[in-house]
Amino acid sequence: MERNSLARVIAVCALLGALSALVVTSGAAAAGSTPKCTITGTPGNDVLTGTRGSDVICGLGGNDTIIGGAGNDTLVGGAGSDKLVGAGGNDTLSGGAGNDQLVGGAGNDQLDGGAGDDTEDGGAGNDELVGGVGNDQLDGGAGDDIEDGGAGDDQLVGGVGNDQLDGGAGDDIEDGGAGDDELVGGAGSDQLNGGTGNDSAAADSEDSATGTEQGDSSSSSSSAF
Question: Region labeled Disordered — which residues (predicted)?
Answer without folding.
Answer: 91-225
